[in-house]
Amino acid sequence: MPRAGLDAQIVAEAAAAIVDTDGRAALTLARVAADLGVAAPSLYKHVAGLDDLTFRVATLSVRRMTDNLIAAAMGRSGYEALLAVAEAYRRFAVEHPGLYALTLGGHPFESAERQAEVARGMDVMRALTRSYGVPEDLTVDAIRLIRAALHGFADLETQGGFRLPNGLDKSFLLLVEAIATSLETLGSAKPANQTAGPGQADLLAPAPTTNSIARRRP
Q1: Are 75 and 1 within 8 A, CB to CB?
Q2: Which of the pair, 79 or 210, is modelled with greater confidence?
């Protein structure tokens, strides 16, 4: 019989703690079992194996990161939202590099739960682009632009790729400014009567005009 109180979620949380502390390479069923005080074979009552457990941790990681992005975006729009989301993204990647690496995909199988978590994150990004007036046919491109820029910076930072002596915060702010300029360009053709779409866009405050977005930058 499974240990009382032990379930797949508890096993995944224990595995996530290992990845968060020591990285994905440290994750083994034996390590998780030892941390939980059970025999390794007993974990198979809750997870199908190491691949299944890793995927569960990946899903949990996406959920945690998305929760952070949603909290950052809440009540904000335009540059204010972009800066808050960008900082939340960078902070999660830097503080939880092992978990962050698992948010990027490349898993051998998929689940409706993970797809739902990924969709929540994309909804935050979609609402952000809408607050800049990016037209629907350019939304995917804009989201990819944001993700590629933020991931590139975060990956270089976590991997120790920035070796010059200058501080990183100023460079990161310049990156966010560049993203903002790109989004303003993409949204510049927005009709005057176009408003933010339904759904997750209401995480953000009513969208200011492109010019007011630019003026709100610090």
Answers
A1: no
A2: 79
DSSP secondary structure string for all residues of 22-82: H-GGG--HHHHHHHHTS-GGGGGGT-SSHHHHHHHHHHHHHHHHHHHHHHHHTT--HHHHH
Report pLDDT digits (tens) over 91-127.
999 999 999 999 987 666 678 888 899 899 999 999 9
| Predicted confidence (pLDDT) per residue in 22-51, tens digit | 999 999 999 999 999 999 999 999 999 999
Q: How far apart are CA 127 and CA 141, in angstroms?
A: 14
pTM of the shown model: 0.82
Written as six digits, the tokens of 78 are 């335009």
Q: Distance (Å, rounded) from C-alpha 217 to C-alpha 178? A: 12
- Which of 135-144, 149-158, 206-215 is predicted with the least confidence, judged by mean pLDDT? 206-215
Q: How far apart are the first and last CA of the chain?
A: 59
CA distance 160 to 158: 6
Helix, coil or strand: residue 131: helix
DSSP letter at 136 equals: G
- The DSSP secondary-structure symbol of 111 reads -
- Distances, alpha carbon 167 to alpha carbons 5, 171, 178, in Å: 47, 7, 18
